[in-house]
Task: inverse folding
């Protein structure tokens, strides 16, 4: 008889059966999932089984009460603060030297968390490819990382571990209170399930697929489970069990009036801490200033990807939002300025939409595109004053105005120096100027412009860079930018409209400097 894990008085699991196994622990909040996961971790640690626990709420540092576990990340019980840069080193120490790790992610922003986890899991995956030894990865709140119906890099990585980790000895324990939100492919890989209580219909439906019973039976049996009770499912073997209580401190316990003593905690050996500290040198932050710089760098990257996302969404919004107005003639009167206060205003696709009171008139076909503080625009639209009228009286549709505002707000987030360069070039358009000339006019050091050119504006095409034999020249490319950026509106606002947008931006952009 091999080694076994003592989970409940009715259940011991053979340790061998856990190698490369995918285990799912499901149930509503407070049903005892983290306790069950904690018991499995304790039993694995008791048997020196190497593991990592991805801990979102700082619930697992208490394992150190009894076991030598390294707690890294950012949070209350963390021994070594780390970021994504040194995550691969931690993974390596953990897998190569059998050091159990709790990756406490409770103190990170979600983007930082994702970066760190990607770096960590990908290192574990690669190492497992060569070492091929038993290793377990526990993931709390798994629906956050492997949501059903969403595609991303991190999810793909976790799914890969669940689907193909067995050959490498990698097993996974996924814990989630949102059974219906966890990726079905991953759930279907789980050879072992601990099904705690659920109540919601959607979660019951998931359980119905996992249990070979009639729906009414599932509802009755699962609905009557108490904290710590669950259905243990392993193939055809289904067993109701009461999981033993964790023997180590459970930081995620439900508070009660009894005072709780903080536990005495063990630490991993000094040599391991030293190895990790060494690994951090050159990789991780060295001084608080460098840490801050690194954080700024990460934030800038995050903002970069957010800007990209905003740009994508703006494209969608522009297409969706630029809906042509068709107002039946009988509705014009109702929509006239002054009578607007009686109308319901709602926002759709981030565009203000005016819907006439049902009792007065049905204009479901006529999607309005103005806001209440633009009564003249409504008048113009209602009176059929076109956007293709001559350039001087050109009234831009709200979708265009909104796009202008979005661009201005996006550009306002660029660095101050870059905004000053932009302002200078726009004001001195169509001339082309060297960094030396710009520096002289904007009174900022030339080296700064040379070392840190206005990349954001260059990327967006608002500024053009020309390389000449005499050096690099910059010029404003506002007109080309507007023609491209507002192309979708051109059929409606015409060339005059585009010209008007260019003039507006020429006036407004220098003001953000
Ligand atoms: N088997 C058990 N025996 C005793 N107490 C338990 C048991 N399972 C859970 N508890 C207690 O119930 C509360 C909720 O459990 P927890 O595991 O944190 O739930 P979940 O992770 O599902 O939200 C905690 O205070 C925990 O200590
Ligand atoms: Mg929990």
Result:
């Amino acid at each position: 008889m091999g080694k076994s894990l003592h989970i409940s008085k009715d259940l011991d699991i053979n340790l061998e059966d856990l190698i490369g196994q995918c285990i799912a622990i499901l149930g509503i909040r407070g049903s005892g999932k983290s306790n069950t996961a904690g018991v499995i971790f304790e039993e694995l640690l008791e048997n020196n089984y190497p593991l990592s626990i991805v801990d979102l709420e700082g619930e697992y540092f208490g394992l150190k009460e009894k076991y030598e576990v390294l707690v890294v990340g950012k949070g209350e019980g963390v021994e070594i603060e780390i970021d994504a840069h040194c995550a691969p080193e931690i993974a390596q120490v953990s897998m190569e030297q059998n050091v159990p790790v709790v990756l406490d992610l409770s103190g990170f922003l979600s983007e930082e968390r994702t970066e760190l986890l990607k770096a960590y899991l990908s290192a574990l995956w690669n190492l497992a490819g060569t070492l091929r030894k038993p290793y377990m990865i526990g993931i709390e709140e798994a629906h956050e990382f492997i949501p059903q119906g969403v595609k991303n890099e991190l999810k793909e990585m976790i799914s890969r571990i669940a689907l193909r980790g067995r050959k490498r000895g990698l097993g996974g324990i996924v814990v989630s209170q949102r059974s219906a939100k966890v990726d079905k492919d991953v759930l279907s890989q789980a050879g072992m399930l601990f099904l705690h209580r659920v109540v919601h219909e959607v979660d019951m439906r998931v359980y119905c697929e996992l249990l070979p019973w009639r729906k009414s039976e599932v509802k009755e049996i699962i609905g009557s489970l108490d904290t710590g009770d669950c259905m243990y499912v392993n193939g055809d073997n289904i067993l109701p069990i009461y999981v033993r209580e964790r023997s180590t401190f459970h930081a995620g316990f439900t508070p009660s009036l009894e005072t709780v003593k903080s536990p005495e905690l063990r630490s991993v050996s000094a040599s391991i801490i030293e190895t990790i500290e060494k690994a951090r040198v050159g990789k991780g932050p060295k001084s608080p200033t460098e840490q801050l710089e690194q954080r700024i760098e990460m934030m800038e990257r995050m903002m970069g990807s957010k800007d990209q996302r905003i740009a994508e969404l703006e494209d969608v919004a522009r297409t969706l939002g630029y809906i042509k107005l068709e107002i039946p003639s009988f509705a014009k009167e109702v929509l006239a300025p002054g009578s607007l206060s009686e109308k319901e205003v709602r926002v759709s696709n981030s565009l203000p939409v005016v819907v006439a009171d049902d009792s007065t008139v049905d204009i479901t076909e006529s999607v309005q595109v103005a806001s209440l503080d633009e009564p003249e625009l409504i008048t113009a639209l209602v009176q059929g004053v076109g956007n293709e009228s001559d350039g001087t009286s050109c009234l831009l549709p709200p979708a265009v105005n909104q796009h202008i505002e979005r661009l201005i707000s996006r550009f306002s987030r660029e660095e101050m120096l870059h905004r000053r360069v932009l302002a200078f070039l726009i004001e001195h358009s169509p001339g082309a100027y060297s960094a030396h000339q710009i520096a002289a006019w904007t009174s900022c050091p030339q080296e700064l412009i040379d070392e840190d050119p206005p990349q954001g504006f260059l990327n967006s095409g608002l500024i053009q860079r020309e390389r000449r034999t005499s050096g690099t020249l910059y010029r404003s490319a506002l007109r080309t930018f507007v023609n491209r950026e507002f192309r979708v509106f051109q059929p409606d606002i015409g060339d005059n409209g585009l010209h008007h947008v260019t003039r507006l931006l020429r006036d407004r952009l220098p003001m953000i400097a």
Summary: DSSP finds 18 helices and 17 strands in the chain. Residues 27, 29-35, 227-228, 243, 245, 250, 252-254 surround adenosine-5'-diphosphate (ligand 1) (CB under 6 Å).
